[in-house]
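Appendix B. One record, verbatim.
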Amino acid sequence: MSLETFIRAYVECALWSSTDNSDETGGEPLDKNYTADDIAPEARATMEADCASFYNDPANQEALALWDDSQAGHDFWLTRNGHGAGFWDRFTGGEEEKAGEHLTKASKPYGSCDLYVGDDGRIYCA
C-alpha cells in the first residue's frame, strides 16, 4: 500500500473532474491547462492531509485493501465530492460491496472540496 500513489491519483482525479469556470458551460477541465504543480501550497497541504487521514484510518484499512491505491485515491475524490461514481459503485455484491459502502460513509465527513483558479493563477480549494 502506498499513500503517495493514493495522493497522486486523488490529485489527478481532482484536476480531471474540476473545471476552470471560464464560461457559462463551466469551461475547460483543469487538467487541460494545469498540473499538480499549479495547486497552491496551502490547498495541496489540505488535500494531502485529508488523503493521509482517510488512508491511514485503521477503520478503513480492511476495506481499502480491496482497492488498488490509485483506484482508491480516485474514488475518494469522486465520493467525497458527490460525483456520480466512487467507492459505492465499484463492486456489486459480497465483501467488496460492503467495503465500498463502508468507504463511502467514511468519505462523507470530509465534505466537498471545490477547486477554483485564483487571481494568481494558482488552484485553491473552497
